[in-house]
Records
---
Amino acid sequence: MNDDEARTPGISRKTLLRAALIVPAAPLLLAGVPALASTPSGQPLTVTPESCDDDDLTPPQMEGPYFKPGSPLRTTMVDGAGTRLTVTGYVVGLACQPVTGALLDFWQADNAGAYDNVGNRFRGHQFTDAQGRFTLSTIVPGLYPGRTRHIHVKVQAPGRPVLTTQLYFPNEPRNNTDSLFDPDLLMNVQQVGSARQATFDFVLNVPGTPPSPSPTGTASPSPTPPGGGTWQPYQPYALGAQVTYGGMAYVCQIAHTSLPGWEPPNTPALWRRL
Ligand SMILES: [Fe+2]
């Protein structure tokens, strides 16, 4: 089931990608928002466009039984007890170029190792910013039988296939016994006071092309047409919104703002054909 077990040991994807990151002299501030991803020493990072290749692609993993569509748009999914955890990083392409507007849909167990299969506790999706960055505020997921500690995620660049994978924590005893565990999916985790800060960068199979437009775009979005309409880019679509595209009807699975390349046939995570 896990062909990553046969991977040749050596320099990990994360090592290679980290080598491609430059630490600027001054803290990175973009549009008034503090830089999110950081080195183990806490310094912010900038992605260079040169040192990623297809050996560095983030490996896929099984979805498991607990994914469900329709997670809320949010970067914070702290709910209840648990050790606070912040995960930050980049989504980049094969040229290490930042992927703007990439969809990340996270789901995980709560502090007790249980998934919410009715509501949306510890489920949330978000989009990378113009620098390809994301941040997730959550808790350290609890353990449940048969698995080591992990966070599930689906990552999708505009117009590209969905990458389904899992993120792991270092120094977990069960990493040695969980057949799904892949060291290439280890986060870099630091203890900061009573909380933990983790980083992870996703490398997607996206050729090096100019970044996509920001989801906030320059066009003025208008509300989703009630009762449907033709799909258009730069539109905020709510969960359950219906559109037509290419003569087919689709229903929105995850609330989002559309982008060129995110046409419904290209984004099965976002749109389900009716
Ligand atoms: Fe799981």
---
Amino acid sequence: MRARLDPDALAFSVLRGLTMIGGLAALSIVPLRLEHEIHLLPLLGAFIAYKAALFTLLFFSPEHARPIFLATLGTDLGIVFILVWFTGGGESHFYLLFLILVALNGYQFGPGIGTLAGVLSAGLMALANLLVVPAAPWSHIAARAALFALLGLALGHIARRERWARAEIERINAELRAVLADLEAAKDRALRAEELAAAGRISARMAHEVRSPISAIGLNVEMLEDIVGSCPGPSMGDAADLLRGIRAEVKRLAGLTEEYLTFARLPRARPEDDSVNEMVDELLAFVRPEAQKRDVALEAAPDPLIPLFSFDRDLLRRAVLNLLKNAIEATPRRGRVRLATRLCDGRVEVAVADSGAGIDARHASHLFEPFYTTKPRGTGLGLAIARQIAEEHGGTLTWENAREGGARFVLHIPLGTLGAGAPSAAVQAASAAPSGGARS
Ligand SMILES: Nc1ncnc2c1ncn2[C@@H]1O[C@H](COP(=O)(O)OP(=O)(O)O)[C@@H](O)[C@H]1O
Ligand SMILES: [Mg+2]
């Protein structure tokens, strides 16, 4: 698309053309001597043609409006000079057109160009006076010259201040709009947080209410399974299958209520000196059956240099478990999940990477929102809890889509002041064993 002349430049070019032509016409009312009058019409014609050419040029090259204006300021001054010269030099009243040019250009381009236009006008007027015999008194010419320069300077200065004030107002306006947008976003966030808190309270209450009956049902089902198992009979096989199904669902419900309660009432971290690699080892053993069932290989890459440091083992275990569960759920058969620990800049990193499809951009901004899930039977609390736990330890939980595919979640936990000790026994054992190898 072609650039368009900005409204300021358009107004300036129209104003300059009209005031010059209007000024010429107005000054023509004053009777001229015959030898001067014959030059007037051809000069007016030439001036109008030149202005038309200027508009055409501006129309086709609006992006060069400023250099065009500055270049044609010289032409304007030249035309007025010829006019003044041909109509009596220092005696001609057309010198007033210089004033229009100085005023307009001073206002448009500031005090520098304004003063320059004034000085050039003064010089050209003096030259016109010199070329006509007899010359007008030089004191008159000097007084007009001073006026030109002063007008250019003063108007240019005023215009610059006015432009500066306008730019300042626009800047403040933009800042204000940004602040208003921030405020609006903060209001939305506060509203959402309030809604989530309410949902959290309700779900915690529900979870609390159903927890005991669910565990009672679980116990009864186990007892029933024992009874059914000890009773021979053809239909007992079916009954045992049904009971197994019920037990699996009860287990799932118990896990669900547990997660809701954890989210609503996450206990304060009670850090104690412990080995993160040992905790991770135990966790891998815990999830291995589930991974094997899904044909997902588990890999471990512990950093043997991580010393004992202070963290809440139960809480951190839960956070890493949530990440591991997500990773296993996201990985297709014959894929792999890798759990690595690392000591980096005074922080311990626990990273869980999978070979699934990675995080879809549509879900990325909602990942840590409580109750946000893309799974038919998900709670949407796993990541929210993991992040709460990281923050409870003064750390963070980050994620990325790995270049080689799959998602990678990393818990960053500061070592704290208790972490300066020697590597733990478990860590030393881990360093003796081959690390980073595939252990599925
Ligand atoms: N490793 C992963 N790969 C792909 N998507 C993931 C991964 N971990 C989490 N997600 C996405 O984040 C969502 C929220 O996870 P989470 O809070 O653990 O809740 P849930 O697992 O119950 O859905 C998941 O539903 C899933 O869409
Ligand atoms: Mg989850």
